[in-house]
Structure formats: structure tokens, C-alpha cells
């Protein structure tokens, strides 16, 4: 297992990382993406689905980037409009295990790095019982102008911390979107809710609650 003893900064993804995505929420998100494209392209739902599937994960790894491309919007505006069409908080509840695990990691500097928008992420944090004050900053496309897997947000955090890149640990549930760009810059990486071994993941763990044990054992 890769040594993580030098970690000082933890960068967290949110959706699918702090909580497991369930099919109903995944469906709500995808329908929201389709609706934004319908609004701006004027296509039928069937054509939107066809065009979306043509380029998602082929030309763009981020669904928000696909929406931006097909809707002729900025990535930021796409995220704003998309998030207006669904509410993740109805699927979330207070998570005492998550809260305790984060409290146990209070000696680290924490960033939240999300592809959503801040005004929607904060109520979701509250629903889980996680205080927004835990994070040095919540980094979104609104702040850096693009979504993961763009390197912009990762570099923004490095510029803010002024710490060596290898002292940063990126934790996420998506290899292409969360881990590969972080690894490209030299960060350490942790894949959650998976035991899959992948070159982009220094550590793979079955649940997010295992993060503390992984760091404490190093």
C-alpha cells in the first residue's frame, strides 16, 4: 500500500463520496441534464439522449461539460441551470459515522471540490450533519470556471495551500473525473466505495468511513 504519512491536505469530492449515490438520485441528475439541453437546443428528449450518449465519456468525462457543449452554455451556467431541476437533499440524512470520521481528521486541512454549485452543496452538507466550516474552501466551477476533470480546480487548491503537491490527498469515487487529474499533478489519491485496483488510485477502500483508518495506520 502506498505510504500516506506525508498528507497534510485532504481534498474531498462530494456526490458519490460523502454518500453513496442511489439509482433514484442518479436518475434525477441525468433527467436534469437532459432538461437543460432540451431548454436550449430545442430538441426532442429522444434526440437529446442520443446526442448526449454520443459524446459522454468519449469526448467529455464530465456530464456538465456535455450539457455545456450541447446547450451552447458555459460550464458554470450549465451547472447552475442543471442543479435547479433536482434536489439531492431529499435523499440525504444525518450521518453520524461520517461526522465522527471527519472530526477524527480535524488536524488536516480540508477542501471540498465539487462539480455542483455552492448554494446547493451547503444544504446537502447540512443534511448530512457536516459543518461547512470544516473546509478551508468549497471549490466549484463558479470559482475556477470549469468542472473536474479539468486541472483548473486542482491547481487552484495547490496555489492556495502553497504546500508540496505530494502532501495533498484527493478522495473521490470516480477514477476519470476525481483521481486521474489529481494524479497527473502529483497528488496522492484515494478511491472510495470500491476495492478496485487502478494505477490512478494509491489506495482503494470499501467505504468513505475507512479514510481515517487508512491515514491513522501510516
From TrEMBL:
- Which keywords does this Swiss-Prot/TrEMBL entry list? Hydrolase
InterPro entries linked: HAD-like_sf (IPR036412), HAD_2 (IPR041492), HAD_sf (IPR023214), S-2-haloacid_dehalogenase (IPR051540)
Question: From the Swiss-Prot or TrEMBL record, what is one GO molecular function term?
Answer: hydrolase activity
Q: Is Hydrolase given among the entry's keywords?
A: yes
For this protein, the record's Pfam families field holds:
HAD_2
Q: Where would you find the membrane-spanning parts of this chain?
A: none
Origin superkingdom = Bacteria
Question: What is this protein's name?
Answer: HAD family hydrolase
**Annotated source species:** Candidatus Gottesmanbacteria bacterium RIFCSPLOWO2_01_FULL_43_11b
